[in-house]
Specification:
Layout lengths: L1 H16 L2 H8 L25 E5 L4 H6 L6 H13 L6 E5 L6 E4 L2 E4 L4 H18 L3 E5 L1 H8 L5 H4 L3 E2 L6 E5 L2 H5 L4 H19 L3
Parallel strand pairs: 1-2, 1-5, 5-7
Antiparallel strand pairs: 3-4, 6-7
Length: 210
């Protein structure tokens, strides 16, 4: 019931104002799931209201949680490089996450990423839908399984459909690919190089649709 109540808040904010700024302010107060208790702050999407491309990741990491901005840590730097290589200007892209709070577990003094569960993803879904309603992007790119399953269905497998253009009403063109953090977790330099090339190739395919 909490997620339904918060959904009405998100959906009421977006149509009335058509303002990402207003939506971001409202989302700061979100308590639809327990993650607000451990996250430093809500990390909302960032980018132009007129952006034609929308990228959706899983959730903010430690660096994003502290900075209050999406994709500013190591995965964000790798994404910046891949976007540049693919011919996509990050300053012209809207970037957000399926979950707006950092979910983590302590390992010594470090805060380690922990995958969000279905309840947490569902609780944040109204914010993501509101962002989509406001932006109406031409191109929507899901980065990783959590983002893809949040928007494309629980049965969707990025490993089977990465780089494919998907026909859905969410945007004119929809695609899913890996999350850049998966490249950072590759076991060796050669694997990282190969996976980076595949990631850039997916983004280039997406860029051709712009």
């Amino acid at each position: 019931m909490k997620s339904e109540g918060k959904k009405s808040v998100a959906q009421a904010a977006a149509p009335n104002t058509l303002s990402l700024k207003k939506l971001r302010e409202v989302a700061k107060q979100c308590k639809a799931c327990p993650l607000w208790k451990t996250g430093t702050q809500t990390v909302f999407g960032e980018g132009l209201r007129t952006a034609r491309v929308m990228l959706v990741g899983e959730q903010p990491g430690n660096d994003e949680d502290l900075a209050g901005k999406p994709f500013v840590g190591p995965a964000g730097k790798l994404l910046d490089r891949a976007l540049f290589e693919a011919g996509i200007d990050r300053s012209q892209v809207y970037i957000t996450n399926a979950v707006k709070h950092f979910k983590w577990e302590a390992k010594g003094k470090r805060r380690i990423h922990k995958k969000p569960n279905s309840r947490e993803i569902a609780a944040c879904r109204p914010w993501l839908e509101a962002e989509l309603d406001i932006l109406k992007p031409d191109l929507l790119i899901c980065l990783g399984a959590t983002a893809a399953q949040s928007l494309l269905g629980r049965e969707f497998k990025v490993t089977q459909h990465r780089g494919e253009l998907i026909d859905l009403p969410l945007a004119r063109h929809v695609m899913a690919t890996v999350h850049p953090s998966s490249i950072l977790r590759a076991p060796d330099e050669e694997t990282r190089r190969i996976e980076m090339e595949r990631f850039i190739a997916d983004l280039r395919t997406a860029a051709q649709m712009m």
